Amino acid sequence: MLTVEKLEAGYGPMQVLWGPDIEIKEGSITSLLGPNGAGKSTLLKTVLGSVAATGGKIRFAGRDITALPSHKRVDLGLTLVPEGKHIFKEMTVFDNLMMGAYRQEARIHRKESLELVYSLFPLLAERKNQKSGTLSGGQQQMVTIGRALMTKPKLIMMDEPSQGLAPKIVLEIFETVEKLKKEIGLTILLVEQNAAASLDAADYVYIMHEGVIKAQGSASKIKASDEIREAYLGL
Amino acid sequence: MIFEQLSGNLLQGVILGGVYGMATMGLSLIFGVLKVVNVGHGAFIMVGAYVALTLFQTFGVAPPLAVPAAMVIGMALGMVFYYSAIRKLLKGPELASLLATFSCGVILEEVCKQLFTSEARGYNWELGKLDLGFTVLPHAKLLAFGGSALIGILLYLWFHKTRAGMAMRCVVESDEGARVCGIDVDWEYALSFSIGIGLTVVSGVLLTMFIPVGINPYMGGSYTLKAFVIAVLGGLASPYGAFFGGLVFGLIENGSYTLFAQIPGLEPFAMTRFFSFAMLLVILLLRPTGLLKAK
Ligand SMILES: Nc1ncnc2c1ncn2[C@@H]1O[C@H](COP(=O)(O)OP(=O)(O)OP(=O)(O)O)[C@@H](O)[C@H]1O
Ligand SMILES: [Mg+2]
What we know:
The structure holds two protein chains of two kinds. Chain A is α/β, with parallel strands linked by helices. Helix content of chain A is about 40%, strand content about 25%. Chain A has helices spanning about 40-50, 70-75, 95-100, 105-110, 110-120, 120-125, 135-150, 165-185, 195-200, 220-225, 225-235, and strands at about 1-10, 15-20, 20-25, 30-35, 55-60, 65, 80, 155-160, 185-190, 205-210, 210-220. Chain B has a single domain (about 1-120, about 140-285), classed as ABC transporter involved in vitamin B12 uptake, BtuC, CATH 1.10.3470. Magnesium ion binds near residues 41 and 83 of chain A.
């Protein structure tokens, strides 16, 4: 569904990605792990298009999207739950969700999408007229995930969705991620600090270090390898 | 006597302040979306003044009817400057875009000097007056105030009730959030710069309805400075905050003028200017996010 080949990207003169190759299968949860500063967020941003690729290729749903602007990538069914949420704090929960259905294709399906979001997060239905900036951290994360679902995505990339949340909420977030795969058939690329929980949720795992992929394999294989766990995951 | 004079002046201040506020909305919009301070702001007001003057003198178009033309000219200028000068500098250091907008202002001033010479001009559009006893309000000024308030309301409705306006608010709050929703952020930048400049040129038309004389290529400078004070009063990034900032500024400017005029040996006009900037300094020190912002 998504293939990243020899991707290079960075910020100005500083190159961050040094040619990682990644392949994501439809209907799977793929986890991307790695230490701080490895370039995980940069990879997701480059796939979305908010950071420009300086080399390599990104293919999504059979198309080369390397040169496509990000709004066109969203049209194709790609979206991101960004690190640090980036919700529209001054707007109501409802308006945040509706902005997720901004593109034409998503707009047509906004009623069904909204029902789906409210069924996943009933609390958002209760709070729909509340300014989203006044919600708790966990609730704001629900808004971010809900907003991403409103774009009618095929692939959702999530950048540390459990960051800074209480353990109980973290559990809920991981449950939601698995639900999205099982019940809606979404494909998910998950970046997490919480390596143990990600290994449990994921089908396939990539480990990134200093802008390159150091190891990969099925989640069970990575879990079984003491070497990889000790070297990169600190487990 | 002084009381009557003061209340008259304050009323004039509110009316002028509304127009000042309108003349700051474009600056705030551009800052809010692009985080670029348009140092050439006043030059676009000057362009609006010439649009009003030329349409009135050459074609006999009443100044309020020059507003749509000014919006179109302003938006076109905005697009040209955005794609030629601003766009590439957004990722650079702040100084780069400051210098760019400053240069845009200088270019406009010099082009207008070539077209219209540097001689100060004016026009005379008689529309009658409203005599309230303690003060006299020319209809043209009332119309300028009404137009400013109307534009402020329309902008508010556009931002809150339309999909396009909401998308622009999304960009103000978070570029990345907007991008993941599929909003074309680069286009929103161009559009907001263009609308911001359009509003500013329109405000130039409305300001001539207030002061129909002294139109010259370098008239913008003092408006740039006032707009900075007003924008800070209203909370820098909020266009309608700017409108209320304008009202406050108009009140303070006119009120302090009256009071300073009572003190012998003071030149009240110079003192109001001093007072405005003293105020700017104090606000920046105490409440850098603006006086009118809720939190
Ligand atoms: N906007 C930016 N401008 C300049 N450098 C950046 C920017 N964002 C990230 N970097 C740098 O790029 C490198 C990779 O950062 P990135 O955020 O992709 O890492 P990460 O793997 O997501 O780390 P974390 O686990 O801390 O989120 C880091 O050295 C970081 O300092
Ligand atoms: Mg990161």
